[in-house]
Amino acid sequence: MPDxxxxxxxxDDAESVAAASQSTVQVNRPPVDQPTMRFxxxxxxxxxxxxxxPRSSPIRSAPNAAGPGQAAQGVPTAGSxxxxxxxxxxAGGKSHGTIGPxxxxxxxxxxxVEPKNDRTRVVPRPEQRTTELSxxxxxxxxxxxxxxxxxxxxxxxxxxxxxxxxxxxxxxTRRVDQLQGQAPPRQxPPRQxPQRQxPRQxPQRQxPPRAEPTxxxxxxPPRQxPKDLPVTGYDEEPEDRLADEPRKSRKPLFAVLSxxxxxxxxxxxxxxxxxxxxAKAVETRPxxxxxxxxxxxxxxxxxxxxxxxxxxxxxxxGPAGNSALGTLTGxxxxxxxxxxxxxxxxxxxxxxxxxxxxxxxxxALLSLEKTDQLSTxxxxxxxxxxxxxxxxxxxxxxxxxxKSVYPGAATLDDLVGQVKAKGPVTKVQFDLSRxxxxxxxxxxxxxxxxGGSVAPIVPFMLDGGRIDQTNVNGARTGSPAQAAADAFAxxxxxxxxxxxxxxxxxxxxxxxxxxxxxxxxxxxMQISDNVLTEAIAREIAIKTGxxxxxxxxxxxxxxxxxxxxxxxxxxxxxxxSGLSATNKIPAKLLTDVLTAAxxxxxxxxxxxxxxxxxxxxxxxxxxxxxxxxxxxxxxxxKGWVRAKTGTLTGVNALAxxxxxxxxxxxVFSFMSASNRNPENEVRPALDVLAAxxxxxxxx
Length: 699
Fold this sequence. Notes:
Elements: H1 10-18, E1 25-26, E2 38-39, E3 57-58, E4 119-120, H2 239-244, H3 251-276, H4 278-282, H5 309-320, E5 327-334, E6 339-344, E7 349-350, H6 357-367, E8 375-380, E9 386-390, E10 394-397, H7 412-422, E11 427-431, H8 447-450, E12 460-462, H9 480-492, E13 498-499, E14 508-513, H10 517-527, H11 530-544, H12 550-563, E15 585-586, H13 587-598, H14 605-616, E16 641-648, E17 651-659, E18 665-673, H15 678-694
Parallel strand pairs: 9-11, 10-12, 11-13
Antiparallel strand pairs: 1-4, 2-3, 5-6, 5-18, 7-15, 8-9, 8-14, 16-17, 17-18
Helix pairs in contact: 5-15, 6-10, 6-11, 6-12, 6-14, 10-11, 10-14, 11-12, 13-14
């Protein structure tokens, strides 16, 4: 490449002159989502007679019409016939450097270009030494085809020329398509362009029409032949003109931004006032229309069709004849009318197993306040540093918070924290004087402790004596009081605990309370907890003035039930939980108690007190000891049967309530004495029996 850039030859100029009368630059309209590229016009392109210099234009790159390996005609390039240039059809021209000024140099004023399908001609200023660049149609040179071979005007220092600084450039932005014809300087308000109908090869975006006054097109000034001006023409740009050219003021931009911020704040304020305050805040709006509820089940009501004894007998004939049930006794009663619908040995005493808990729960609800709580205290001992744990009959104290099977249980950590706050502890004792008699019930077997059925009944223990606090049926300890007291001593920093008595009137150092009696009853029925049931039986004994022992608890339960009008003829039981195989009660006693709880009205004083007994019963296929039952042929009773289970060796029982398909509540109790497999035969047969009542509709 020669040292000095070359100017186009006369043939090139002649071709440019021939193309001057036609549009010379074709700008294709790109998609609207493409970014706009700004391209500064060179200083060699002088303004027409209007004295309004052309601005730099954002040119969006469009595909070059020239084929591969061809240079665009009318654009001087290295190798386009210039002397000393390389031969061949070069695809690029002189590089003009990076588009945009260098750091520290003022940015050329931009000219906005709206791409159209027309072709635009740029005419240089007559008084400058410029040349006219003309690009024939369909042979434009793309910017990306200009090789970066030389320093562009943007990379070279500009030369000072004070003469060009006399007339500052106007601040308005012009489009290239508006440079086709120049009008005299305008004094009118900002222009509006009339809508222009232009042929397009692709669908146009519908834009609002813009009107612009018609301006006369000035003829192009006489073309001046360049002499010594190099091909770039940028060395002749006056340095002072660029340096001293007035910059665009940013004040209008700041003013517009300020107005936008103010408008946004004002809008937000108006919205907040309208939404959260003002008239809307004080006006009373009408309530929304009630939802249209479509019940999917029939309401339980005494007005539902009443079943008949004949209908119930027919419904139960098949299930009750299942040989797996062995000796079956039972009773079905309509609590709304008190009518006995089905009876089979209902007055014959049979082993109830854990269904006996219905009697203990009923006696507790009838005699104790539902909101009563069991309190465990720690008092000051006879010697300094000695404390005494006074067992209050609460077997549900949680030794590991969050792992208890008893909802709402108090925690040992709470009691420890209260005591430690009072001072150091050097000795721990525990007082079990609240209970009397034996710790294990009549005919209870020691194997049931390891089997998880029971623990010795004492007034102070943790988690019902369970070793694993989260396992309902897990093994229990044979010394629950000692284990609980040792855990307390370890946490207060004292040696192991010993049995002792609390001094009379001793100062209370800490106290924790159990859940309410109503919740304790619910819990003991759901998980059929024998220890908790025996603790509640002793509380009934204390309340009624009986000895807090097994015998005293049984007597208290019988006394409360008899006092409330229940016939205990034939009932003989020795504990409150039903764990003893010697317990015998008739099925009718169970249905009598459940009938009083399930009456549709509260005319009976017992009903209001016993109502929580119904919600304490496990739900078939849903909760407690019935959660895993009622599959197969018993599935129709799932969710509709609520009952207390009972299981001992050779004994299975089920007593509770069911809602039949007509919405009528029925009370039942079934007790089976059978040596058949309880898991796979006897219990499923009892479930089918109760489910048959669900589908009865036996009117």
